[in-house]
Write a structure and sequence with these properties.
This protein is mostly helical. Helix content is 55%, strand content 6%. The strands form three sheets. Strands 1-6-2-5-4-3 form a six-stranded mixed β-sheet, sandwiched between helices. Strands 8-7-10-9 form a four-stranded mixed β-sheet. It has a three-stranded antiparallel β-sheet with strand order 11-13-12. The N terminus is likely disordered.
Length: 922
Amino acid sequence: MAEDSKDQNAPLTLEGFWKILDSKLVSLGTPAALIGVALDFARKSQWKEAGLCLVGGFALWILIQVANKLAPRIDKLLDWILNNAEKISLDLWAKLTSDFEGKYYERLKFDCREYEIRGINRGTLQLENLFVPLKMGQTSAEKVSQNIIQYQQAFDPLKQQEIGDILVLMTGDIKQRLVILGAPGSGKSTLLRHITLLYATRKQRRLHRKIPKLIPVLLQLRNVYQDIIQEPQPSLALVIENAVKKLQSSQPLEPRQGWFAKRLRQNKCLVMFDGLDEIADDVQRQQVSQWVSQQINEYRNTPFILTSRPEGYKKAPLQGNFLELEVQPFTREQRNKFIQDWYKCRKKEGNNNKVDLGIRDSAIKSANNLIAQIDTSQSLKVMARNPLLLNMIAITHDSEVTLSTKRVDLYKDICRVLLEGRQRAKGLSTSSTSLSAEQKQVVLKSLALKLMQENTQAFTLDETSTHEKTFKEAKSLLKEKLDRFPNQTLSPEDFIKKDDLGVRELMSEREQEGIYELAHKTFQEYLAAVEIEKTKQENILLEALADDKKFAWWRETIRFYVAQTDATNLIKVALDHATIPVLTLVYQCWQGKEAQQIDRLVQEQLKAKLEQGLESDKLDEFTLAAEVKLAYRLSQLNQDLQTLDSYSEQESQAIDRSYITFAEYQLFLNETSSPSILANKKRAREPVINISFWDANGFCAWLSLRSRKELGEPGICYRQVTQIDRQQHPCEEDKEYADKEGIRLVRFQVPTLYEQLAYYLAAGKWKEADEETDRLMLQVAGREQQGYLGLDDIRQFPCKDLRTIDQLWVLYSNGHFGFSVQKEIYLSVGGILEGSQANSPFNKLLLLPPVRWIYVRLGGRVMDRNDKTYEAYIRFSDRVGWKKTFIWNTSVSRGNLPTCHGLFRVGTLMIVLFSRVQTCKL
């Protein structure tokens, strides 16, 4: 040790300096090594060599830095060169040699290049530019839902895969065959066409970099099943050849003799069978399924994919071992990407397929507008998870920017496509006795209206059913309507259950119980509204307006109704029965331009009652008008909560599109202080400004209590927008009022357990919030009887609950209070969390007695961990003001609350809580 000390204190010679410098430079890599060599030459006065090495080292260093920056781009360039070199060379070879493969690929490209939604003819979009990769999860056919509207994904996102990953696995050492199942419109056929297109254009590596080179074969079973069921049954190669001849009828392609048979034997094909369910006859479908199973057994090392809806596959499953996958509904990210790409393609199409800054900007604005409208409507949200329905929503939005005024047209198109358009467009067999879409709607409209009158969504075909709140006379009603059509023998069961004959695509079924509903309540409301308008039964809706108990159930039906006809009589009745909910609805129909027609005189009466009422000198008239305005705002903001049904997945957040007005804020002041009208009536409709953060919180607390009572949603809360909210969800009024202390709302929900804490915090009742925090933490930990938390209770406290508590404190204190705030302060004063000290190499060395002894002899102070923790806790307590008299307001030091003084018998256990906060990543 003494020698080491002596060496360290010895004077540094020039020779020693060169040695150290050389070793350091060599350790830094080749450029630094060259500089070291240059220094060595310089030492020997060999200046020319030294200069060359110096320049070379510097040049090499520059080259390395440039290469590091360009590496990602170089990788992409090499990938592009490799991919396109293969594509160009193969295309050139096909042209020079009249190669059949090249011609076949060209026909496939012609057949699959358009994004095709059969039954919808609105422009031509390119599949390659619009396709959004689908997620799939492994399942069994019995578990796959047939419902076109699905409220949530069936699989954990971590267990979902894209087709490229699956194709790599299925063509590896373990050969697998895929059965891809999904609801109507989920994108099964589009997926196979996209795979075919990428292979045909030799861009299959976009699916996966390791994907094998295969020859794509796409067989639409609806087009080839007649060949398959012939006797004797044909070979797979023959079926493929016949299908290829029909790819382009104007110039048929004649396959080479034995070309497909040879490549099937060589396992060079990817064979895809699309639409097993589209074979209408059950017996014929089973024959085709058996034939497909035989082909798979014959070509055991060839990858096969079959798609079907679950109901069709269950009646004719393949024989053998297959990987059954379910297509998952779109996530929010997939939905938004589709909309953005859709509008980019549409704007590009309208500009001679050219994209410039103007087109790009226009596409972004249109896409953002549609996304915002979908986000404010739960019915649109759940429909937008289905690619088919999302495409129809986009088409409707493209023709009319505001969806609310065209909602009736959207539902009309959806019903038309689902009831007939897709079957006719796909060329599915339809007999002369098949029902048209109009005939099917006649039956469905009667059923929907009856369900509305019975105050239920559920019906059964079993008239002896004992299920409550279920319409049991549906079978007789359906039979009566079906018997009215000439030459029809369709049973109620077939009408409800069969895709090809009836209305299965519009139904949602609880299969085990035999209970049916329309796919979403809004379909029932739309069809009922159409029936009321067709049969002139407006009196049903007039009665609902005059009956507060019925009104909420019929509200959306009324909206659909007024969009189809003259709303004058309804608004007259609403003005006579001037309750806030009723006036809010008619205000929406008028202000939102949803009503098709309203008499001019009635419009003036409505305007006088609502718009001019905001400037009235009479308190009751002002209050009614302001209440309607606020109710209208909340009906838009909470629309998703109002339309939720028992199967819905609630969205956690909704952001308002405008700022709270003076009139709406005055309602809050009137209920919390002396009632009065506005001092400046002319500003009633303008956004209120100069409201402090804490007063705005008080408004949010007041509004939360109102909404919980009116909507029956105990966990509903409001807060102010943050800067991040404004960036992600901008609105027009942000430009003028974002910096003027206005109020723009964000609605969110917390578990019912935390609603009282949220209210106390928003209302600025800090003492009550602190006590409520103690109570909640004891309840969550199951320590109410004990009255305090122990060490293990804190270490195992659920992260989800800890996060909810902390976020509420941080949110409503503007970052002034909260556990995460306290943890940062504790660490800033030198605090040590559990496990942190042991990770320090120096502290580990101090555990060794010799090192510890030397450290003390040199004047170091070895503190016990508890000593360090205690001193840090004392400094933390001083910083947050816990040694002073408690003042329950925001003038206290940052991090002062929550105190948790009622939770711990020993104050330093707060450090254990901070460690848990760190573990939970708060």
